Amino acid sequence: MMTQETIAAIATAVGEGGIAVIRVSGPDAVAESAKLFKSASNIVEAPSHTVHYGHIVDPANGEKIEEILLTIMRGPRSFTAEDVVELSTHGGVVAVKRVLELLLRQGTVRIAEPGEFTKRAFLNGRIDLAQAEAVIDLIRSKSDRAFSVAMKQAEGTLSRRVKALRHNLVELLAHIEVNIDYPEHDVAEMTNNYIRERSQEACDEIDRLLKTASEGKILREGIMTAIVGRPNVGKSSLLNALVQENKAIVTDIPGTTRDVIEEYVTLGGIPLRLLDTAGIRETTDVVERIGVERSRTALEEADLILFVVNASESLHEDDYKLMEELQGRPVIVLLNKTDLPVAVDEGEMASRFASGSIVRLSVLREQGLDQLEKVIRGMFFGGEIDSGDLTYVSNVRHIALLHQAKQSLVDAMEATDAGIPIDLVQIDVRTAWEQLGEMIGDSVSESLIDQIFSQFCLGK
């Protein structure tokens, strides 16, 4: 799909910086840029992948607008597989805006839609849909490991495994088709065994991919982690220690935190979406009561709960109430202020929660944070995080399609065992093949494509 429209957008974040980049893609990218670009070189005839120094000049009055570097990448050797020009201007809102407005004023260049550059790369066969979706994961990565996982997907590691799966199913479909066309040469029992064997092999491979799904989703989105406890036990101090910045106000006055404060932090390569909640207690203060209700909502939605207890004081009635509420939830108990004499009965805490989930902590002295990281890693990653050679499945859409494809293959095996005609069994196998194709974009609706790329930023 080679479009006849030329598009442009700012590819860098808006704001002050060293440089800003405007990306132009389409059949007229070079010609339209040449109308504004004055340089010693003729960029219309310039070879691909060359950089040129010059100025952007307003053709209406000859005024020099900006001093830039212009990069030419001719299709198909570009990200979109079309002719692409990138204009590197001085960083800043005014400079880049003036150049973009001048480009759009020519009439044949329009502003790009969100994700349209990546969409063109997909439609032009430069990348498949799974690789395209990995681009947005690269942009939104919250940790080095999440970035590594997204990079592997962008390079096609997941796509290659899905394509291998589909290839095996095509061979199975071809075998079934031959037996449908030439039933006189078919040995039913051998064919049924072959269908079961190849379908089970495909299910096993899907299971291997799904095994990484929960960890991949965590690396992609982070663990929603609620910090809870009664007032003045050190919740906000813990948030500040993890973020390494004074994000939350810390005082000796109970009820200082009135709302849920949200921050992203990476702890030992594990992305945490931290929610510092208002101290949960009975209160007559109207504003604090609203904060407590929001804290309870965050508690319900959390993947992980850090229950902070002041270890230097005996357990309070509010502590006991919280412990009742937290039963059966993924909880790590943090006995804070252990730099002071400990008054909490750790044996009692261990009787209510798993002993491995109790961490002695002194936020003031930053002691125990390494142990907290170790416990989180054990709860969610079995003790280790492997992003080296492992292909993580992190996209919710991919996970759903893998489950659907596996169910279709299970249906095919059950139909075979039930003696259902082979042409009906073929329908289930073909459905699985098509569902896997949706992952990489081989069989996907236009509306879904539009929905996926609408999530991208404007210049990507």
Q: Can you tell me the CATH topology of the largest domain?
A: Rossmann fold
pLDDT averaged over residues: 82
Q: Helical element count?
A: 16
CATH class of the largest domain, named: Alpha Beta
The largest sheet has its strands arranged as 3-4-5-6-2-1-7
Count the domains: 3
Radius of gyration of CA atoms, rounded to a whole number: 29 Å
Structure commentary:
By secondary structure, this protein is an alpha/beta fold. Helix content is 46%, strand content 17%. The strands form two sheets. It has a seven-stranded mixed beta sheet. The longest helix has 25 residues, at 157-181. The model is unreliable at 247-259 (pLDDT under 50).
Properties at a glance:
Gyrase A, domain 2, 460 residues, metal ion binding, Rossmann fold, seven-stranded mixed β-sheet, 3 domains, 16 helices, single chain, alpha/beta, GTP binding, Four Helix Bundle (Hemerythrin (Met), subunit A), 13 strands
